[in-house]
């Protein structure tokens, strides 16, 4: 057999880039690096570093390979019998609402479709919610309130064609890197295009911003309320559009005038200068071609829906919608959050963009599914769902492709709920996650490289994910596991799909069933598709109704919406602050988000040593003034405490956050660090309309952790009994690298015992310096290094690449090596510093050196070191090195 090249879709962010993967003919050969698909309209061949390093995440030592029930490996038959017997019994004894699915925007549309069908049509409960509740729920409700449907009007081209791009609560430079690169390119081509970033933090996205509004967290709605009243005051309203295509304008304008009567009141509420808000207003007034591009800084808020509608109001009032380069554009995070929305896989949706409240919808879906037990009303949204689990109302929960022990707010509550639940079923690819640790039944799922199906990206584009590799062990597709349970519950005929394309065709048929243009989501063109056509599907934007195979680039071009009278709705908005306010007890405002090279709870990106080089440990970003006041040094350990939990993180002192504000990334779990799950700190506060948690906000105390030593451990084997104040596992290709913090003066003996002293025997090398309080320990077995530990009273960075290279698999240690291990790294080994460019592994020290040697631009750095010349997402960071040149020159 020869190598095969397959086109598929990247499993990370909602940009939905096409990738090409060549699978070698022999399974023993590694899969070579993946490349971008030049024909895919999302990326035209480009990939960011997460996408381009996908091949390095394919082989994992930690796959879940067999079903497990109560800690024991069992056959699929036995696991499926246990699951279905318990569901039957619980439904019989307590009714269908004692069962719940908690799904994910990372399963495929086909997986989602069968889960939704089983719960809502056959078991009879609408308790089907998903991690999209934490992600897109406010955007969905915002669109539905305004348009009568959950319709993203714009496409990626619009981002390139607009003259004004307002990015609200989005750090796209890191979170949607390829789209951001398209924007960077467009701005380069058309320097008149303006970019505004609205974010309380200064982020990498600000790199291309003509204006950055560092607003007080939560105050976005006031910015747009002011823009609405200013649009009226300056006569830039599209009065024809307002009259013909909308309702509710006057009341909404009156509200805007009441809550943001003038520039100074609006600027004061938002915590920005009048000049900067005026600058935004002028940019807004100057062009019709404007896009408002929004993400989690808008959605994850107790008033997230109102923020979305404040934005949409401005677009409706000025007719900036349904036109090239204009519109309110909610960008999706997960690769298939859109697919889940299309299927109706949320507790307050029914199916195929119909709701329980849509007249006739429930009967329509029942007829189509031939469903015996249709749910009749909304189910429980994520936070309420886990509360119902804790209260014992939900007795069986099936969690699929999400890690709620890390991502839901107040993880202590999630733990209590899962401990209480009679049966927790977890379908995952990984054996060890914070959530599989809570599962009674673990079902091994196929992952990205093995699954087959469809996903929809942020611009409504449906693309195929295609299976590349055989499933490892006994892993099975999620849709298969759901259908097997359905059959055991007695619903054979409705769930006897022979392959995944049959599910897609049924989904397409439901979208078109009795639709006749009433519903936006119609992919009827695919309702009779053959397997061959499905396999050959090229990316296409929905709606794709019968007779329009080319799909639909842009929505609402005819000004007709999906409300009963086809008119869009203005919603009067009163801007709100976050629910929890700063107080003397909880003085710091805590914000959360993402870093460039990690994905969510690190179950995939944590397998790639390359991706952990950019940010190797969890951190809390804190303003220099606050750090000074609290006696916190850079990289020193900090304790954060909120009303619901605690976390221990390293300090990153930076002007990027405002005084009184702190920020942490969300990615580290208990698999990677002892106390870095930041959702521990977030209270279960949510938007009353969307149920989306205010995950970007908590009030906290910040404390320095003093009298400690900082260290690192390099070990050939994983260490299981680490009893440090803080530890963090940094993924490495060579062995196991831990960063640790222990009490000052911790005894060498106690450290040795944590390092498997008894087990390994061997010779201990030891160096302690009573003056500097440094400790260095190494264990050597048969002239090979098995473990080394360095401790130091200050949080100094020790380059450990060299140490790692000396671990067991390498050559026997020389006398010089033994000396170097104890006193320091040999001088001939280059210390790259912290990695800035992940694609080419270029570190800060190499960049500084090149600059000292005369390089004075990002292009120059690219020429000499190659950094920034592949995916480009490190360019904002590279730019920050350039001023150093000026410093050196004086
Ligand atoms: N590298 C990487 N990329 C990803 C992901 C990942 O895990 N890693 N996840 C994907 C997913 S699922 C999602 S949803 C997206 C999220 O993509 P983004 O929303 O771009 O990412 P975040 O970092 O969560 O948050 C964006 C910004 O919101 C700001 N913010 C906080 N509060 C407010 C506020 O009140 N107002 C405003 N205007 N801004 C505020 C934060 O400071 C932060 O910079 O990323 C996707 N892409
Ligand atoms: N404080 C705070 N909390 C947040 C956020 C924030 O910004 N701040 N962001 C929120 C947002 S926007 C999101 S999207 C969530 C993300 O949070 P989660 O959804 O909890 O995070 P993931 O790591 O993506 O979890 C996916 C799990 O599914 C597994 N998996 C991957 N592919 C498959 C598959 O095909 N089948 C199965 N069965 N399993 C699979 C992975 O191994 C992993 O365990 O976090 C939310 N939580
Ligand atoms: S931007 Fe990067 S992570 Fe997102 S889909 Fe494209 S390659 Fe994947
Ligand atoms: Mo998300």
Would you write up a description of this structure?
This is Nitrate reductase. It holds the Pfam family Molybdop_Fe4S4. InterPro entries: Asp_de-COase-like_dom_sf, BFD-like_2Fe2S-bd_dom, BFD-like_2Fe2S-bd_dom_sf, CT_Nitrate-R-NapA-like, MoPterin_dinucl-bd_dom, Mopterin_OxRdtase, Mopterin_OxRdtase_4Fe-4S_dom, Prok_molybdopt-oxidoreductase. Residues 3-62 form the 4Fe-4S Mo/W bis-MGD-type domain. This protein has 890 residues and is α/β, with parallel strands linked by helices. The chain has 6 domains: 4-57, Phosphorylase Kinase, domain 1 (2-Layer Sandwich); 68-135 and 337-500, Rossmann fold (3-Layer(aba) Sandwich), CATH 3.40.50; 137-330, Dimethylsulfoxide Reductase, domain 2, CATH 3.40.228.10; 588-704, Beta Barrel (Barwin-like endoglucanases); 708-823, no CATH class; 835-889, BFD-like [2Fe-2S]-binding domain (Arc Repressor Mutant, subunit A). Helix content is 31%, strand content 18%. The protein has 32 helices and 34 strands. Strands 5-4-16-15-14-6-7 form a 7-stranded mixed β-sheet, sandwiched between helices. A 6-stranded mixed beta barrel has the order 21-25-22-24-23-26. α3 (109-123) packs across α21 (500-512) and α8 (220-233) runs antiparallel to α11 (263-270). The longest helix has 19 residues, at 76-94. Mean pLDDT is 94; it is low at 884-890. The structure holds ligand MGD (2 copies), iron/sulfur cluster (SF4) and molybdenum atom. One ligand MGD binds next to α6, α13 and β21.
């Amino acid at each position: 057999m020869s190598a095969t090249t397959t086109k598929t879709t990247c499993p990370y962010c909602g940009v939905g880039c096409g990738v090409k993967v060549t699978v070698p003919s022999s399974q023993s050969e590694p899969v070579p690096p993946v490349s971008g698909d030049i024909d895919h309209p999302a990326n035209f061949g480009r990939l960011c570093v997460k996408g381009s390093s996908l091949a390095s995440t394919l082989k994992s030592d930690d796959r879940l390979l067999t079903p497990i029930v109560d800690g024991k490996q069992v056959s699929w038959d036995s696991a499926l019998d246990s699951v279905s017997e318990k569901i039957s019994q619980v439904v019989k004894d307590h009714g269908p609402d004692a069962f719940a699915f908690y799904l994910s925007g990372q399963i495929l549309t086909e997986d989602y479709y069968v889960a939704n069908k089983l719960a809502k049509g056959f078991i009879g409960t609408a308790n089907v919610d998903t991690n999209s509740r934490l992600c897109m729920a406010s955007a969905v409700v915002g669109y539905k309130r305004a348009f009568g449907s959950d319709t993203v009007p714009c496409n990626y081209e619009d981002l390139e064609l607009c003259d004004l791009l307002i990015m609200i609560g989005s750090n796209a430079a890191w979170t949607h890197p390829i789209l951001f690169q398209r924007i960077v390119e467009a701005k380069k081509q058309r320097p008149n295009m303006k970019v505004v970033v609205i974010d309380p933090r200064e982020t990498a996205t600000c790199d291309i911003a003509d204006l950055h509004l560092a607003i007080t967290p939560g105050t976005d709605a006031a910015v747009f309320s002011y823009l609405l009243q200013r649009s009226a005051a300056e006569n830039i309203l599209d009065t024809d559009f307002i009259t013909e295509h909308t309702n509710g304008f006057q009341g909404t304008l009156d509200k805007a005038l009441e809550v943001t009567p003038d520039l100074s009141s609006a600027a004061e509420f938002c915590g920005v200068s009048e000049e900067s808000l005026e600058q935004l207003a002028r940019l807004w007034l100057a062009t019709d071609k404007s896009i408002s591009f929004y993400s989690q800084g808008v959605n994850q808020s107790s008033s997230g829906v109102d923020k979305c509608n404040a934005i949409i109001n401005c677009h409706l009032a000025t007719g900036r919608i349904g036109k090239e380069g204009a519109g309110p554009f909610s960008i999706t995070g997960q690769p298939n959050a859109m697919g889940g929305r299309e299927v109706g896989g949320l507790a307050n949706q029914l199916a195929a963009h119909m709701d329980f409240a849509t007249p006739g919808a429930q009967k329509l879906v029942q007829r189509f599914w031939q469903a015996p037990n249709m749910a009749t009303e909304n189910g429980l949204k994520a936070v309420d769902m886990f509360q119902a689990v804790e209260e014992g109302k939900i007795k069986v929960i099936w969690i699929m492709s999400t890690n709620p022990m890390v991502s839901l707010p107040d993880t202590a509550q999630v733990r209590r709920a899962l401990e209480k639940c009679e049966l927790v079923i977890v379908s995952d690819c990984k054996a060890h996650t914070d959530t599989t640790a809570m599962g009674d039944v673990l079902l091994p799922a196929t992952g990205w490289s093995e699954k087959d199906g469809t996903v929809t990206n942020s611009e409504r584009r449906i693309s195929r994910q295609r299976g590349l590799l055989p499933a490892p062990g006994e892993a099975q597709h999620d849709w298969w596991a759901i259908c097997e349970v359905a059959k055991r519950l007695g619903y054979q005929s409705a769930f006897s799909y022979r392959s995944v394309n049959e599910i897609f065709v049924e989904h397409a048929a439901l979208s078109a069933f009795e639709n006749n243009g009433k519903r936006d989501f119609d992919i009827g063109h695919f309702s009779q598709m053959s397997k061959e056509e499905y396999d050959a599907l090229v990316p296409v934007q929905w709606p794709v109704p019968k007779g329009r195979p080319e799909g639909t680039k842009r929505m609402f071009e005819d000004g007709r919406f999906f409300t009963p009278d086809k008119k869009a709705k203005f919603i009067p908005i009163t801007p709100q602050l976050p629910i929890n306010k700063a107080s003397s007890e909880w003085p710091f405002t805590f914000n959360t988000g993402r870093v460039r090279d990690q994905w969510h709870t690190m179950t995939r990106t944590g397998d790639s040593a390359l991706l952990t080089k950019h940010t190797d440990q969890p951190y809390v970003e804190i303003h220099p003034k606050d750090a000074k006041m609290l006696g916190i040094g850079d990289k020193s350990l900090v304790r954060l405490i909120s009303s619901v939990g605690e976390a221990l993180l390293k300090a990153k002192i930076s002007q990027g956050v405002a005084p009184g504000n702190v920020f942490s990334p969300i990615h580290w779990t208990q698999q990677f660090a002892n106390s870095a799950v930041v959702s521990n700190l977030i209270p279960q506060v949510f938007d009353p309309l969307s149920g989306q948690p205010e995950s970007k906000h908590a009030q906290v105390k910040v404390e320095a952790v003093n009298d400690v030593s900082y260290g690192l451990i390099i070990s050939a084997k994983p260490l299981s009994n680490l009893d440090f104040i803080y530890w963090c596992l940094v993924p490495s290709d060579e062995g196991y690298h831990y960063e640790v913090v222990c009490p000052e003066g911790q005894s060498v003996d106690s450290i040795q015992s944590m390092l498997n002293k008894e087990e390994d025997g061997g010779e201990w090398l030891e160096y302690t310096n009573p003056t500097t309080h440094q400790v260095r320990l190494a264990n050597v077995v048969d002239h090979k290094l098995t473990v080394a530990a360095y401790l130091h009273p200050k949080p100094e960075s020790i380059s450990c690449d060299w140490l790692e290279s000396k671990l067991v698999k390498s050559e026997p240690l020389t006398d010089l090596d033994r000396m170097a291990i104890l006193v320091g790294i040999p001088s001939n080994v280059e210390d790259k510093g912290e990695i800035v460019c992940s694609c080419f592994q270029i570190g800060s020290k190499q960049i500084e050196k090149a600059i000292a040697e005369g390089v004075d631009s990002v292009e120059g750095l690219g020429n000499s070191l190659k950094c920034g010349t592949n995916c480009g997402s490190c360019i904002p960071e590279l730019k920050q090195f350039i001023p150093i040149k000026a410093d050196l020159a004086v």
